[in-house]
Amino acid sequence: MKDALTPGALVLGASGNVGFGVVGALLEAGCPVLAVGREGPRMSALAEHFEDEPGLQLLHSPCIHDDRGAARLADEVRERGRPLRAVFASIGTPLQAGRLLDRPASFLLEKLEADLIPHLAAARHLLPLLSESQTAANYVLIGGPYAERGWSGYGHASVTGAAMRMLTQVLHEEAQTMGVRVQLLSVDKPVCTPENAVNACAEWPNALAVGRSAVSLLSRSGRAAQSIVTWSAHDAKPPEQTLARDFEDALFAVAGAKRNGRASA
Protein backbone atom coordinates (compact mmCIF):
# COMPACT_ATOMS: atom_id res chain seq x y z
CA MET A 1 0.00 0.00 0.00
CA LYS A 2 2.96 2.29 0.41
CA ASP A 3 4.04 1.75 -3.20
CA ALA A 4 4.59 5.20 -4.72
CA LEU A 5 2.83 4.03 -7.92
CA THR A 6 -0.40 3.15 -6.14
CA PRO A 7 -3.07 5.80 -6.74
CA GLY A 8 -4.72 6.99 -3.57
CA ALA A 9 -7.36 9.38 -2.32
CA LEU A 10 -7.23 12.75 -0.63
CA VAL A 11 -9.85 13.55 2.02
CA LEU A 12 -10.58 17.20 2.76
CA GLY A 13 -12.09 17.71 6.19
CA ALA A 14 -10.75 14.41 7.48
CA SER A 15 -11.00 15.60 11.07
CA GLY A 16 -14.79 16.02 10.82
CA ASN A 17 -17.28 13.28 11.62
CA VAL A 18 -18.09 12.46 8.00
CA GLY A 19 -14.47 12.89 6.95
CA PHE A 20 -13.49 10.36 9.62
CA GLY A 21 -15.98 7.92 8.09
CA VAL A 22 -14.67 8.48 4.57
CA VAL A 23 -11.11 7.81 5.72
CA GLY A 24 -12.24 4.59 7.39
CA ALA A 25 -14.18 3.42 4.32
CA LEU A 26 -11.23 4.08 2.00
CA LEU A 27 -8.80 2.19 4.21
CA GLU A 28 -11.33 -0.62 4.53
CA ALA A 29 -11.41 -0.83 0.72
CA GLY A 30 -7.62 -0.97 0.50
CA CYS A 31 -7.07 2.58 -0.74
CA PRO A 32 -4.12 4.66 0.49
CA VAL A 33 -5.38 7.89 2.06
CA LEU A 34 -3.94 11.36 2.47
CA ALA A 35 -6.09 12.87 5.24
CA VAL A 36 -6.14 16.66 5.25
CA GLY A 37 -7.24 18.64 8.29
CA ARG A 38 -6.27 21.18 10.88
CA GLU A 39 -3.77 20.06 13.47
CA GLY A 40 -5.51 19.43 16.76
CA PRO A 41 -7.24 16.83 18.95
CA ARG A 42 -9.49 15.49 16.18
CA MET A 43 -6.62 14.80 13.79
CA SER A 44 -4.71 13.22 16.65
CA ALA A 45 -7.73 11.00 17.36
CA LEU A 46 -7.85 10.03 13.68
CA ALA A 47 -4.18 9.05 13.70
CA GLU A 48 -4.61 7.06 16.91
CA HIS A 49 -7.69 5.23 15.67
CA PHE A 50 -5.96 4.12 12.46
CA GLU A 51 -2.45 3.80 13.86
CA ASP A 52 -2.11 0.25 12.49
CA GLU A 53 -3.01 1.33 8.94
CA PRO A 54 0.16 1.79 6.81
CA GLY A 55 -1.92 3.34 4.04
CA LEU A 56 -2.82 6.47 6.03
CA GLN A 57 -0.85 9.70 5.87
CA LEU A 58 -1.82 12.94 7.56
CA LEU A 59 -1.38 16.39 6.11
CA HIS A 60 -1.98 19.15 8.64
CA SER A 61 -3.26 22.12 6.71
CA PRO A 62 -5.24 25.26 7.58
CA CYS A 63 -8.82 25.46 6.39
CA ILE A 64 -9.24 26.40 2.75
CA HIS A 65 -10.87 29.80 2.48
CA ASP A 66 -9.85 30.95 -0.99
CA ASP A 67 -7.70 30.29 -4.04
CA ARG A 68 -4.49 31.02 -2.16
CA GLY A 69 -5.08 28.30 0.42
CA ALA A 70 -6.26 25.81 -2.21
CA ALA A 71 -3.23 26.48 -4.41
CA ARG A 72 -0.91 25.96 -1.46
CA LEU A 73 -2.55 22.63 -0.68
CA ALA A 74 -2.35 21.48 -4.31
CA ASP A 75 1.34 22.36 -4.39
CA GLU A 76 2.00 20.37 -1.22
CA VAL A 77 0.19 17.35 -2.62
CA ARG A 78 1.95 17.57 -5.98
CA GLU A 79 5.35 17.76 -4.29
CA ARG A 80 4.69 14.37 -2.70
CA GLY A 81 4.93 12.84 -6.14
CA ARG A 82 2.21 10.26 -5.51
CA PRO A 83 -0.67 9.88 -8.01
CA LEU A 84 -4.24 10.52 -6.92
CA ARG A 85 -7.35 8.75 -8.09
CA ALA A 86 -9.89 10.62 -5.99
CA VAL A 87 -10.63 13.63 -3.83
CA PHE A 88 -13.38 13.58 -1.22
CA ALA A 89 -14.51 16.98 0.07
CA SER A 90 -16.34 17.01 3.40
CA ILE A 91 -15.86 20.59 4.52
CA GLY A 92 -18.18 23.18 6.02
CA THR A 93 -19.09 25.06 9.15
CA PRO A 94 -21.27 23.60 11.94
CA LEU A 95 -25.04 23.95 11.57
CA GLN A 96 -26.53 26.98 13.25
CA ALA A 97 -30.22 27.12 14.02
CA GLY A 98 -32.16 30.25 13.14
CA ARG A 99 -34.64 31.70 10.66
CA LEU A 100 -33.47 33.59 7.59
CA LEU A 101 -35.71 36.49 8.55
CA ASP A 102 -34.19 36.76 12.01
CA ARG A 103 -30.61 37.35 10.87
CA PRO A 104 -29.10 40.17 8.82
CA ALA A 105 -28.53 39.58 5.11
CA SER A 106 -24.79 39.72 5.73
CA PHE A 107 -25.03 36.43 7.66
CA LEU A 108 -26.05 34.57 4.49
CA LEU A 109 -23.07 36.09 2.71
CA GLU A 110 -20.84 34.83 5.51
CA LYS A 111 -22.30 31.32 5.16
CA LEU A 112 -21.73 31.31 1.41
CA GLU A 113 -18.15 32.46 1.91
CA ALA A 114 -17.56 29.79 4.56
CA ASP A 115 -19.44 26.81 3.08
CA LEU A 116 -19.50 27.31 -0.71
CA ILE A 117 -16.46 29.32 -1.80
CA PRO A 118 -13.96 26.87 -0.22
CA HIS A 119 -15.46 24.07 -2.33
CA LEU A 120 -15.01 26.09 -5.50
CA ALA A 121 -11.46 27.09 -4.55
CA ALA A 122 -10.53 23.49 -3.73
CA ALA A 123 -12.00 22.19 -6.98
CA ARG A 124 -10.23 24.84 -9.06
CA HIS A 125 -6.84 23.65 -7.86
CA LEU A 126 -7.37 19.96 -7.15
CA LEU A 127 -9.22 19.04 -10.35
CA PRO A 128 -6.14 19.87 -12.48
CA LEU A 129 -4.09 17.73 -10.11
CA LEU A 130 -6.48 14.81 -10.57
CA SER A 131 -6.37 15.25 -14.35
CA GLU A 132 -2.66 14.42 -14.21
CA SER A 133 -3.49 10.93 -12.94
CA GLN A 134 -2.89 7.95 -15.22
CA THR A 135 -6.22 6.41 -14.29
CA ALA A 136 -9.89 7.34 -14.06
CA ALA A 137 -10.30 10.10 -11.47
CA ASN A 138 -13.17 11.14 -9.22
CA TYR A 139 -14.01 14.24 -7.21
CA VAL A 140 -16.74 13.61 -4.63
CA LEU A 141 -18.45 16.29 -2.56
CA ILE A 142 -20.68 15.34 0.37
CA GLY A 143 -23.83 17.32 1.12
CA GLY A 144 -26.41 17.25 3.89
CA PRO A 145 -30.18 16.74 4.13
CA TYR A 146 -31.21 20.38 3.96
CA ALA A 147 -30.54 21.28 0.31
CA GLU A 148 -33.47 19.84 -1.66
CA ARG A 149 -36.11 21.61 0.39
CA GLY A 150 -36.10 24.30 3.04
CA TRP A 151 -35.21 22.83 6.40
CA SER A 152 -37.19 24.53 9.13
CA GLY A 153 -34.91 26.52 11.41
CA TYR A 154 -31.84 26.04 9.20
CA GLY A 155 -32.64 28.29 6.26
CA HIS A 156 -29.10 29.49 5.71
CA ALA A 157 -27.84 25.91 5.45
CA SER A 158 -30.62 25.13 2.96
CA VAL A 159 -29.65 28.04 0.72
CA THR A 160 -25.93 27.26 0.77
CA GLY A 161 -26.63 23.53 0.35
CA ALA A 162 -28.78 24.21 -2.73
CA ALA A 163 -26.00 26.41 -4.12
CA MET A 164 -23.52 23.56 -3.64
CA ARG A 165 -25.77 21.23 -5.61
CA MET A 166 -25.73 23.66 -8.52
CA LEU A 167 -21.98 24.13 -8.15
CA THR A 168 -21.56 20.36 -8.42
CA GLN A 169 -23.70 20.16 -11.55
CA VAL A 170 -21.63 22.87 -13.24
CA LEU A 171 -18.32 21.28 -12.18
CA HIS A 172 -19.60 17.88 -13.34
CA GLU A 173 -20.01 19.29 -16.86
CA GLU A 174 -16.85 21.37 -16.94
CA ALA A 175 -14.56 18.65 -15.55
CA GLN A 176 -15.52 16.09 -18.18
CA THR A 177 -12.96 17.53 -20.60
CA MET A 178 -10.33 17.00 -17.88
CA GLY A 179 -11.16 13.32 -17.52
CA VAL A 180 -12.45 13.78 -13.96
CA ARG A 181 -15.93 12.82 -12.76
CA VAL A 182 -17.41 15.27 -10.24
CA GLN A 183 -20.35 14.14 -8.12
CA LEU A 184 -22.19 15.11 -4.97
CA LEU A 185 -23.30 12.43 -2.51
CA SER A 186 -26.50 13.89 -1.10
CA VAL A 187 -27.14 12.44 2.36
CA ASP A 188 -30.88 12.93 2.89
CA LYS A 189 -30.79 12.23 6.63
CA PRO A 190 -28.78 13.66 9.51
CA VAL A 191 -25.63 11.70 10.30
CA CYS A 192 -25.48 9.92 13.65
CA THR A 193 -22.46 11.15 15.58
CA PRO A 194 -21.15 10.64 19.11
CA GLU A 195 -22.57 14.06 19.95
CA ASN A 196 -26.15 13.35 18.83
CA ALA A 197 -26.29 9.55 19.30
CA VAL A 198 -28.64 9.78 22.28
CA ASN A 199 -31.31 11.57 20.23
CA ALA A 200 -30.57 10.01 16.84
CA CYS A 201 -33.27 8.15 14.90
CA ALA A 202 -32.70 4.53 13.93
CA GLU A 203 -32.60 5.32 10.20
CA TRP A 204 -29.85 7.92 10.50
CA PRO A 205 -26.62 6.63 8.92
CA ASN A 206 -23.35 6.74 10.81
CA ALA A 207 -20.21 8.30 9.39
CA LEU A 208 -18.79 4.98 8.15
CA ALA A 209 -22.01 4.24 6.25
CA VAL A 210 -21.77 7.62 4.54
CA GLY A 211 -18.10 6.98 3.83
CA ARG A 212 -18.83 3.61 2.24
CA SER A 213 -21.47 5.17 0.02
CA ALA A 214 -19.04 7.88 -1.04
CA VAL A 215 -16.34 5.32 -1.83
CA SER A 216 -18.83 3.27 -3.88
CA LEU A 217 -18.92 6.18 -6.34
CA LEU A 218 -15.38 5.34 -7.42
CA SER A 219 -16.70 2.41 -9.43
CA ARG A 220 -17.65 3.32 -12.98
CA SER A 221 -21.24 2.19 -12.68
CA GLY A 222 -24.52 3.31 -14.19
CA ARG A 223 -24.40 6.34 -11.90
CA ALA A 224 -21.42 7.79 -13.78
CA ALA A 225 -23.63 10.26 -15.64
CA GLN A 226 -25.29 11.54 -12.47
CA SER A 227 -23.94 14.70 -10.91
CA ILE A 228 -26.10 14.26 -7.79
CA VAL A 229 -26.34 10.81 -6.16
CA THR A 230 -28.64 10.26 -3.19
CA TRP A 231 -27.25 8.29 -0.26
CA SER A 232 -28.53 4.72 -0.10
CA ALA A 233 -28.16 2.13 2.63
CA HIS A 234 -27.53 -0.41 -0.13
CA ASP A 235 -24.23 1.32 -0.94
CA ALA A 236 -23.21 1.39 2.71
CA LYS A 237 -22.33 -2.30 2.91
CA PRO A 238 -18.72 -3.39 3.49
CA PRO A 239 -16.82 -3.76 0.20
CA GLU A 240 -16.80 -7.20 -1.39
CA GLN A 241 -13.36 -6.57 -2.87
CA THR A 242 -10.62 -4.04 -2.34
CA LEU A 243 -9.94 -1.11 -4.63
CA ALA A 244 -6.21 -1.77 -4.71
CA ARG A 245 -6.52 -4.29 -7.55
CA ASP A 246 -8.62 -1.84 -9.55
CA PHE A 247 -5.89 0.76 -9.17
CA GLU A 248 -3.19 -1.68 -10.21
CA ASP A 249 -5.14 -2.91 -13.24
CA ALA A 250 -5.77 0.66 -14.38
CA LEU A 251 -2.10 1.55 -14.19
CA PHE A 252 -1.10 -1.55 -16.13
CA ALA A 253 -3.69 -0.74 -18.79
CA VAL A 254 -2.47 2.85 -19.16
CA ALA A 255 1.13 1.72 -19.40
CA GLY A 256 0.25 -1.00 -21.92
CA ALA A 257 2.18 -3.44 -19.76
CA LYS A 258 1.64 -7.17 -19.55
CA ARG A 259 0.48 -9.04 -16.50
CA ASN A 260 0.57 -12.77 -15.95
CA GLY A 261 1.81 -13.19 -19.51
CA ARG A 262 -1.16 -11.30 -21.01
CA ALA A 263 -1.83 -7.67 -21.74
CA SER A 264 -4.20 -6.08 -19.23
CA ALA A 265 -7.66 -5.36 -20.57
TrEMBL record:
Keyword Metal-binding: no
Gene3D superfamilies, alphabetized: NAD(P)-binding Rossmann-like Domain
InterPro entries reported for this sequence: NAD(P)-bd_dom_sf, SDR_fam
Keywords: Oxidoreductase
Protein family: Belongs to the short-chain dehydrogenases/reductases (SDR) family.
Stored PANTHER family: 5-KETO-D-GLUCONATE 5-REDUCTASE, BLR5618 PROTEIN
Name this protein carries in UniProt: Aklaviketone reductase
